[in-house]
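Consider the tokenized backbone below.
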């Protein structure tokens, strides 16, 4: 990879990182926030500077298009996301978007003439921060989420997707987001591993064979509340103590699932009224629960469900269980996996096949076209933290492999 483009890409990662709701080194860019909109404008300008056409769909998925000599052929796509959860880093998703743009620019600058088009997709809302569900853009593209379900979503302030997307200039019927089968020849996503394996084993390129099955649910617990001094312990219906017991049950179910890939996280806890001398009467918990094995995950979820309802009965706490998502895992296309591996070996890079424990838009693109993921190492596997880091050299290797895959696929 030429040093010019390496520094260009590095500079752009820094420029995009500066578009954040929180000061460096943190990056926060929540769906349809001012920062998200500025990032979209910035990316559109970079793509147009490179001579590509840009379009967006009604939910704000952004498409950077390079038309092929045979435009009737389904394009080959790459892409990822630029939205970022609060207090995140500068590489999650961004490496796949800016690395994909860099791969396209390098092909163009080298005089490549694609037969089928090449498209870079910046997916709307890969992160669940705004509406509690991740991959909203790719779910709608894959038809996993219906326009009606998406239209019913509300954020913490009660704002709807329609209200926010229109304010962002994304108009049109959400039904138009859904891709027809065969819309793309292939989809290849470049992403940091968000785990420690590649760095620990000093491997340049991870080739993802399977993407874990994510699930998320929200629990609304209602207790009796009351005076912290006057209500005796045996008379309490304390919503927070029920929540605390549930959180430990989530951990226990993950640890005892029989699968080392089962992970459970209680990432959101809200307690009301939130006064030191008032027994919590309303608690909201949001739980993220995953495994690469769907059956192991769902067995553990059933255990959490049974245990939760039993302890809430015992404690006299009412519970409302809202499933946010419960998705199957995705398998990457074996032919594309072999291609990624062959390109990496041809470039002299070390490789390892692996699973992705994080979910990605690839999880849903795999439902509409052959899909593969290219992983690169990141510092100690850190991600969703300000000290997330991947070196320019590691990124360059990922871009090199992606570029060669896009080149070959665009000539098929
Ligand atoms: O949570 C995830 O796996 C992704 O990074 N949104
Ligand atoms: Mn993420
Ligand atoms: Mn990501
Ligand atoms: Mn992801």
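A designed sequence for it:
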């Amino acid at each position: 990879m030429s040093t010019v483009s390496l520094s260009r890409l590095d500079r752009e990662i820094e420029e995009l990182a500066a578009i954040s709701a929180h000061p460096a080194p943190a990056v926060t860019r929540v769906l349809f926030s001012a920062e998200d909109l500025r990032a979209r404008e910035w990316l559109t300008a970079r793509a147009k500077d490179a001579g590509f056409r840009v379009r967006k769909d009604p939910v704000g998925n952004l498409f950077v298009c390079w038309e092929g000599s045979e435009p009737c052929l389904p394009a080959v796509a790459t892409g990822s996301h630029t939205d970022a959860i609060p207090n995140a880093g500068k590489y999650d998703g961004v490496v796949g978007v800016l690395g994909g743009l860099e791969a396209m620019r390098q092909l163009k600058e080298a005089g490549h003439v694609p037969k089928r088009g090449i498209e870079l997709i910046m997916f709307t809302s890969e992160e669940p921060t705004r509406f509690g569900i991740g991959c909203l853009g790719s779910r709608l593209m894959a038809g996993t989420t219906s326009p009606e379900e998406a239209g019913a979503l509300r954020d913490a302030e009660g704002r709807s997707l329609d209200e926010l997307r229109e304010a962002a200039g994304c108009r049109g019927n959400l039904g138009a987001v859904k891709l027809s089968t065969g819309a793309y020849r292939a989809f290849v996503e470049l992403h940091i591993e968000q785990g420690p394996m590649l760095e620990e084993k000093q491997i340049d390129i991870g080739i993802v064979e399977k993407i874990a099955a994510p699930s998320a649910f929200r629990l609304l617990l209602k207790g009796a509340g009351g005076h912290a001094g006057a209500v005796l312990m045996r008379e309490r219906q304390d919503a927070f103590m029920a929540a605390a017991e549930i959180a430990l049950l989530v951990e226990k179910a993950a640890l005892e699932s029989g699968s080392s890939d089962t992970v459970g996280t209680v990432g959101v806890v809200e307690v009301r009224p939130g006064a030191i001398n008032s027994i919590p009467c309303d608690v909201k918990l949001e739980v993220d629960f995953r495994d690469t094995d769907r059956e192991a995950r769902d067995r553990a979820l059933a255990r959490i469900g049974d245990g939760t309802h039993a302890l809430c009965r015992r404690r006299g706490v009412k519970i409302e269980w809202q499933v946010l998502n419960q998705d199957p895992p995705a398998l990457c296309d074996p032919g594309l996996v072999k291609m990624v591996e062959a390109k990496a070996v041809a470039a002299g890079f070390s490789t390892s096949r692996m699973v992705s424990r994080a979910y990605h838009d690839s999880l849903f693109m795999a439902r509409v076209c052959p899909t593969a993921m290219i992983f690169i190492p990141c510092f100690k596997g850190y991600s969703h933290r300000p000290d997330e880091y991947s070196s320019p050299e590691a990124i360059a290797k990922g871009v090199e492999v992606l570029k060669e895959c896009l080149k070959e696929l665009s000539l098929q």
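The chain has two domains: 3-212+329-410, 213-326.
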